[in-house]
Amino acid sequence: MRRINKILKNDIFKNIIRNIEKAEKTRIYCGHGIEHLFDTARICYILDLEGKRIFDKEIIYAASMLHDIGRYEEYKNNIPHNEAGAKIACEILAECDFSETEINIIKEAILYHRKDKNENSLGNLLYKGDKLSRKCFCCNAEKECYWNNEIKNIEIKY
After folding, report:
1. Where do the domains of the chain lie, and which CATH numbers do they carry?
2. 3-state SS, residue 10
3. What number of other Cβ atoms are within 10 A of residue 53's Cβ?
4. Residue 152 carries which DSSP code?
5. 49-to-56, 125, 131, 155 alpha-carbon distances in Å
């Protein structure tokens, strides 16, 4: 997890996370701060362990820690967060000793984490972990949430 710790100490990452948390300070719905990123990472890792054990732990954590890194650009410039995040993630990953191959795998997962239907892809794993990380069962805004009741996490799974 050496490289994950490098991500957490990376100045670009830290500044963007601070900006996201400031932008979401009055948001009543789920946030995209560090707690969400860790929840997503841990759930993705559990899902991978329960499944076929396809992905390296650091790749799962890196993709999870960076999957919403583009949120601030979405809030500020109306750029879809997956597109902005993939670009920013490449810069952070390169500074944190990930290989070009690993960067491309993570970048693709971030790009497609909102709609990847390939069951064996990192993007699909990220999609599932991202959704399962939401704590609808104890959310004060659950009634106002735009999520369909069928996909809300009313009962804990992970």
Report:
1. 2-23+30-138 (1.10.3210.10)
2. coil
3. 9
4. S
5. 10, 11, 18, 21
